[in-house]
Design brief:
Helix 1 crosses helix 2, helix 1 runs parallel beside helix 5 and helix 1 packs antiparallel against helix 6. The chain is built from 6 helices and no strands. The protein has one domain. The protein is mainly α.
């Protein structure tokens, strides 16, 4: 069974967005853990994963590096990273094969967040400046190693966006004619 071109392009678009999102969110998380987490762990405490991140965000709010709303936004973006990594089906389940009327969207209303990538890239770029005023940052080669992939994915996203918009307009027009 063949997936219509519009749906196929939407899934490819989402996959590229999710790949970029995973990179930027993981880079941001690592920066937070290395910079702020190192300070928190100086007391000799062995704090890991979720508890450490909660402490990191509390610390960032106490030092006025993030407002409470900003902290909530960044934490939700990092949670979105976990959804991509562990429950990707939730972000693609609204696209179904023709002839298979599972109607997942009606029973499990989930909405793909097309703006999440822009939000995480904003924080990936903005937070290090804020952190550098209070914490020591680490420099790595991750961004350089991912640079070619990011460039290719971003260009492909632009191309796919135009193609999806055209395909959607054609489908909308065809649907109006049938109705």
């Amino acid at each position: 069974m063949r997936l219509p071109a519009l749906e196929k392009n939407i899934l490819v678009y989402r996959a590229l967005q999710m790949a970029l999102f995973l990179f930027y969110s993981e880079a941001l998380r690592r920066q937070l853990v290395f910079a702020v987490g190192r300070e928190i762990k100086k007391g000799g405490q062995s704090i890991k994963d979720d508890k450490l991140l909660k402490r990191i965000f509390r610390e960032l709010e106490c030092n006025s590096i993030l407002t409470a709303d900003e902290s909530i936004e960044v934490q939700s973006l990092l949670q979105h990273r976990n959804t991509i990594a562990h429950q990707i089906h939730q972000l693609t389940g609204d696209i179904e094969l023709p002839g298979r009327n599972y109607r997942f969207a009606a029973y499990l209303p989930r909405k793909y967040d097309y703006g999440a990538l822009a939000k995480i890239t904003h924080w990936h770029d903005a937070l290090p400046d804020r952190l550098s005023k209070h914490y020591m940052l680490t420099i790595g080669f991750d961004s350089l190693e991912f640079e070619a992939a990011a460039h290719a994915y971003e260009r492909e996203l632009e191309t796919l966006r135009r193609r999806i918009d055209k395909q959607y307009a054609i489908r909308k027009k065809a649907t109006k004619r049938i109705a």
